[in-house]
Amino acid sequence: MFVFALMLASLAAGQGPEKPMVDDEDADMTGRQTFVENCLICHGEDMTTNQRLTTKQWTSEVEKMVGWGAPVAQEKKAALLAYLSSSYSEKSAAPKLDRADLRGLIRAEVPGESTSHGDATKGGLLYTQHCATCHGPAGMGGDLGPNLVERSILLKETAYHEAVRKGVRRMPGFSNVIKAQAEDDLLAWLRSRRTP
Ligand code: HEC
Ligand code: HEC
Question: 23-27, 32-36, 185-189 — which is least confidently predicted?
Fold first, then answer.
């Protein structure tokens, strides 16, 4: 009766009890601890933090992992589920996307090879002269041509050179206009536009 009156009072004050009447902090700690001890044996934490699931989905995910060998004690399951479904619920913000670092990708793609042999400063001038009308002043796309800065073709040097030399569909080829070195300068400039 007393508790009921208290709840009414707090509701009236516009601050309804946000959490259920259990010792949340303890439950959170147990949940987190259970997670650390039982769920990071086979894979990293991001396997979990990248998920956004409902309580029901988390329940079957945990069952699945237990089936695969996660040693979760029966009495810890509730706390673990509470931890997972409150931290990574379908309502929480989407996981942060790690934007790949272009330089890292290039190194992975072409091991040992330097990022580009071009001079980005010269490339910028060439770009304004020859490419900006279609691809926009910053390489991010214009009325006539797509964004180049975000394209994977910047990682594929052979395809890039071929596109610039021969043209692609609505884009004219530049083999008569710019030299191979200038193509490299342009590539260096385009790559430099993309910040990691
Ligand atoms: C015995 C090893 C093992 C343990 C312990 C384990 N997992 Fe997994 N988990 C896996 C494997 C294997 C995969 C699949 C990995 C892949 O697809 O590359 C996986 C995948 C996942 C996924 C991705 C979705 C899916 O189903 O593929 C989530 C989320 C996950 N685990 C959560 C957990 C949680 C939470 C725990 C603790 C209760 C846990 N895991 C414990 C082996 C384990
Ligand atoms: C007349 C307009 C025009 C000019 C000028 C132009 N482009 Fe393009 N470019 C395009 C169009 C349109 C496409 C897309 C072609 C398609 O897919 O249909 C394109 C595509 C490309 C592609 C291929 C993109 C991909 O992902 O496949 C590259 C690389 C490229 N341009 C680089 C350049 C460079 C470097 C210059 C300057 C030397 C330049 N372009 C000048 C219109 C132009």
Answer: 23-27
End-to-end CA distance of the chain: 60
Q: Please, which residues have CB within 8 angstroms of residue 164's CB and are 6 or more apart in sequence?
A: 173, 174, 178, 183, 186
- Evaluate whether 42 touches 72 at the Cβ level (below 8 Å): no
Q: Which of 21-25, 41-45, 145-149 has the highest mean pLDDT?
A: 145-149
Q: Which atom of ligand 2 is nearest to the CA of 187?
A: 35
Which residues does 175 contact at the CB level (< 8 Å), separation at least 6? 165, 166
How much distance in Å is there from the Cα of 185 to the middle of ligand 2?
Answer: 16
CA nearest 142: which of 176, 171, 169? 171
Which of 140, 106, 138, 120 has the alpha carbon at shortest distance from 189? 120
Overall residue count recorded for the chain in this entry: 196
Nearest to 47 by CA among 31, 68, 65, 27: 65
